[in-house]
Write a structure and sequence with these properties.
371 residues, 8-stranded mixed β-sheet, alpha/beta, single chain, 19 strands
Length: 371
Amino acid sequence: MRVTIIGGGILGTAHALESVARGHHVVQLEREREARGATVRNFGLIWVSGRSTAELEAALRSRQLWEKLGADVPGIGFRPVGSVTLLRTPGEVAVAQEVVARGDAEYRGFRLLEPDAVRAVNPVLRGTYLAGLHCTLDAAVESRQALPALREFMAAGGRYRFVAGAEARSVDGRTVVDDRGRRYDGDLVLVCAGAAHSGLVRELAGDLPVRRVRLQMMQTAPLDEPLTTAIADGDSFRYYPGFAGAALESLRRNESQHVVAEQHRMQLLCVQRLHGGLTIGDTHEYDEPFDFDVREEPYAYLVDVVEEFLGRALPPVVQRWAGVYSQCVDPHQLVCRTSPDDDVWVITGPGGRGMTLGPAIAEQTADFIGL
């Protein structure tokens, strides 16, 4: 088949990979010269920990697919770093204790560590905390390197073409027309337009059950020692459904977040890039219109938290940015997938799970439509 994919982010690229792997010919359109949305503004984390029961199988499958891609395409920078969620209060420790006591704890790669055991896993964590929830299954890729490396890998097979600077304006049957009037004829159209919910997406699929979420993140200059795992803080329990339970409800009732963290709906996530810098975030903003400014107080708060865990000063912050991603509001769906026509599909809304779940979502799409 000839598959035309609209959108050059991780979701569109994952669908291109799956289509090529199944023997099809793919043309992928991206309106920018390079993808500039949430795909390159994230941590690059393959985050298994904290996934709900409904998400877990897909997350584990995606983790397998990413590991295979890492072997086939070293340029994506896949590494099975795992993660440690560092706990600062008795309530957070209670959540972790409840999680590791569940029947699926081993399946999720969880174990609860005392501070000395945390430092044995990640010697850089010489600071202050009560315990750490270790997840061995979490991993990372280089978000700003992955897409070009994957495109080069696909192009080498002779059945893939990437068209940069081509904004899809209409879909006429199975023909996509871009903003220069160029036509791309095919047998199937997959629209993976990221956080663009209006324009062509709305014309094709109407109003979808999705919302946009804005976040702020930053990156430091290289740290002069290796951070051997990704790290998170206990506030992350509040944002991942896999931690839901009586202990989390008690935490919410009895332990308030720091005022800045609560105001900006924050959690700490931190991963070291291959060049040594630390990518640190993030915030959550749900009500549009979004601010176009970035706010300084979340950055200052995150620096304090990371320095508390490391027991040392961070390198200078060299980059700050904001990003917006698309999130399906149906908690039972990994993504919003709809077909305005038998040969046209719109796939959007993976939320903050796009990097984690992209390969599995693409595999599910291909199975579902018989690709």
